[in-house]
Design goal:
It is built from 11 helices and no strands. With 167 residues, the protein is mostly helical. α2 packs across α8.
Length: 167
């Protein structure tokens, strides 16, 4: 079985997230595509993981389904690492993620997209404040785990205003 292309993985993610919308009413596939764009500089495998980063958590898809679909085992491992298991403490999950470079870059891109001001402005005020604090706390764990140049690459692609937090 030939390995799937990036377009194949995008189509798989689109099917898996069909009918799903994010907190601001945008089709969910747009979020995972934005995360994938944020890690494009790091190669196709990381883009694949980014496209699939929420598929295990938010759809009936399981890791075995991805392997059967021909998704490379390393990509599936990254997706599993960024998937929050029920009952897992968020900070504990982040501390596990930062032990893996690929997972950390995907999670940084995810956090950066979720932190975009144009997106958060469309949330109810109570959610906006709560999520802003959560994402800020996550950045304190995630950002030190990668090289400054890699962090800047992701932020510049997904949420350039966050670069100001580095200076």
């Amino acid at each position: 079985m030939p390995s799937p292309t990036l377009a194949d993985v995008d189509a798989l993610a689109a099917r898996a997230h069909a009918g799903q919308y994010d907190r601001i009413g945008v089709p969910y596939i747009e979020h995972v595509r934005a995360v994938a764009a944020g890690v494009a500089a790091f190669g196709t495998g990381l883009q694949m993981a980014a496209l699939l980063h929420d598929v295990l958590e938010d759809t009936p898809t399981r890791a075995d389904d991805l392997l059967v679909a021909g998704i490379p085992a390393g990509v599936v491992a990254t997706v599993c690492r960024v998937t929050r298991e029920p009952g897992t403490d968020y900070r504990a999950m982040l501390l596990d993620i930062v032990t893996d470079q690929a997972a950390t870059l995907v999670k940084i891109a995810d956090n950066a997209h979720n932190s975009r001001a144009d997106r958060s402005a469309r949330l109810p005020e109570a959610d906006r404040a709560r999520l802003a604090a959560r994402y800020r706390d996550a950045r304190a764990v995630l950002w030190p785990a990668v090289a400054d140049a890699d962090l800047r690459t992701v932020l510049a692609a997904v949420n350039p205003p966050l670069l100001a937090e580095l200076d």
